[in-house]
Amino acid sequence: MSTSALKTGHVGLNVTDLARSTDFYRRVFDVEILGEQTEGDRRFAFLGRDGALLLTLWQQSGGAFATDRPGLHHLSFQVPDVEAVRRAEATLRELGVRLVYDGIVPHGEGASSGGVFFTDPDGIRLEIYAPAGADTAAAPTQGAPTCGFF
Predict the structure, then answer these.
(1) Which residues pair with 117 in a beta bridge?
(2) Which of 16, 61, 78, 111 could form a disulfide with 107 if both were Cys (CB 3.0 to 4.6 A apart)?
(3) CA nearest to 33, candidates 56, 2, 11
């Protein structure tokens, strides 16, 4: 296998409540259920768009996401433009999700890329960003990437 052809296929997340997380991810990321098992001991959902798998949810954990343990730091989703980030921000506010920073912020000092930072119902840190257009606000973290310490 050539590593130059390597790319992320999909991301799998452990969740505590499959129905709650499926609803959250469907609404925030505008994905559809490609397959699921909602009964029994092995509950899961495959989420994606146009038949392409993007995210899998596995109901097999308890508690909240541990930010002080090795493993996933945050999950970031790129959208085409800052208008798409604004639409996502509106959905998040409609759902009552608390944003880490006040609205859309750049990835760092002098960066044009940026977005919104928040957590899912289990505390998993998430980001929706655009490659440009977020330079209208000040960077909330001086001397470090915005996505690094939230």
Answers:
(1) 127
(2) 111
(3) 56
pTM: 0.92
Domains belonging to the chain, first-starting first, are 1-60 (3.10.180.10), 73-145 (3.10.180.10)
Distance CA 136, CA 13 (A): 33
Q: Distance (Å, rounded) from C-alpha 26 to C-alpha 16? A: 16
Phi/psi at 2 (5° precision): -90, 125
Q: How far apart are CA 58 and CA 51, in angstroms?
A: 19
Tokens standing for residue 79:
């959208």
The tens digit of pLDDT for each residue in 80-137 reads 999 999 999 999 999 999 999 999 999 999 999 999 999 999 999 999 999 999 999 9
End-to-end CA distance of the chain: 36
**Predicted confidence band of residue 1 (pLDDT cuts 50, 70, 90):** low
DSSP 67-126: TTSSS---EEEE-SSHHHHHHHHHHHHHTTPPBSSSS-EESSTT-S-EEEEEE-TT--EE
